[in-house]
Automatic annotation (TrEMBL):
GO terms for molecular function: heme binding; iron ion binding; monooxygenase activity; oxidoreductase activity, acting on paired donors, with incorporation or reduction of molecular oxygen. CDD domains: CYP142-like (cd11033). Belongs to the cytochrome P450 family. The keyword Cytoplasm does not apply. This is Cytochrome P450. Keywords: Heme, Iron, Metal-binding, Monooxygenase, Oxidoreductase. InterPro entries: Cyt_P450 (IPR001128), Cyt_P450_B (IPR002397), Cyt_P450_CS (IPR017972), Cyt_P450_sf (IPR036396). It comes from Sphingopyxis lindanitolerans.
Amino acid sequence: MATQIRVEADAANPLDVSRAELWREDRWQEPMRRLRAESPIHYCEDSKFGPYWSVTTYKPIQHIEALPKIFSSSWEYGGITVAGDGVDHLQEGDVPMPMFIAMDPPQHTAQRRTVAPAFGPSETDRMRADTQARTAALIDTLPVGTPFDWVEKVSIELTTDMLAILFDFPWEDRHNLTRWSDALGDIESFSTVEERHARLATAFEMGAAFKQLWDRKAQNPGPHDLISIMLQSDAMKHMSENEFMGNLILLIVGGNDTTRNSMSAYAYGLHSFPEERAKLEANHDPDLAVNAMHEILRWQTPLAHMRRTATEDTELFGHQIKKRDKIALWYASANRDESVFPDGDRIIVDRENARRHLAFGYGIHRCVGARVAELQLTTLISEMQKRRLRVNVLAEPERVNASFVHGYRHMQVELERY
């Protein structure tokens, strides 16, 4: 049997890595390192979100992701974050919102198959020139030698614009997409009745705006946008209101937070490892930019965890998992697993196996929009190289206060030419 660490249950359990302050203060690395070394499959008996298993190393996460019948993603059991408790434990202000990432086959398969072509190789190639033009145009507006907020001026702008294009969302209202993403992706907003009601109001506001867009597209569908694609699919054209909102939340939060926080990690991470930044400044080979993109995704891991729920009693590498146990797959930790990524706390832009990262997940739920996210981040790196621009971070960033979205709220920077 593998070793279990036993810790007295209290408000500051050092091995409860779901605590928001660890992520807000960027202190999650050490408890994860301890868990990887001493108890990579660890039962946390007490947390804000109830008892759960922490899985912190690479191999067990891949194993779990490869067995979706045993380790479910279903919204009915609590979905994809450690915060969910399933339809049997709904509280006032909770409304289940099914989304295809929080479904099991065959429903997951049909809905994912509907939207996947919008993010496939041909569509990504079609977006390439526009992505390059928009990224270049934005960079050319940035001041050199004057402080500004990188998250606000770069990361949010580029990802919000791409989301608006993917949905063919009204351009003048596109910043609502970011606001909705921030509110609806926040797993800390389930704590009180008031917070749950506020979150629900935001969801219905978003749903109403997209219902208007849905109705317009029903009359005049487009060739590429996600709403038109859903409308023309047997698997998604008859979605319930809650399922519609759930899938919108998935596509908006997934499309916004992964790319947005990777773009911020590009600035913060390369500033933190200037010797690696120097490699990119000296070598503008596109292959190195692509590898650096994967390495930044590995190092940041924009979604820190995904959650699964056991559908039956089972054994997991010597541990007895009970039916309905909650299991947190800590991608952020697996991407620092020393057995796979030596010196994993460092960015190494030419790391040989950077592409093996789990930042987009693994198995049937691997991020459907991964190619588009990769395109956006690689384009940013390349366009900054072309202009010989370096980002200097002026102060520690303000980070997201949660253990799900692993990202940045604000980051003051200054550009210089090299």
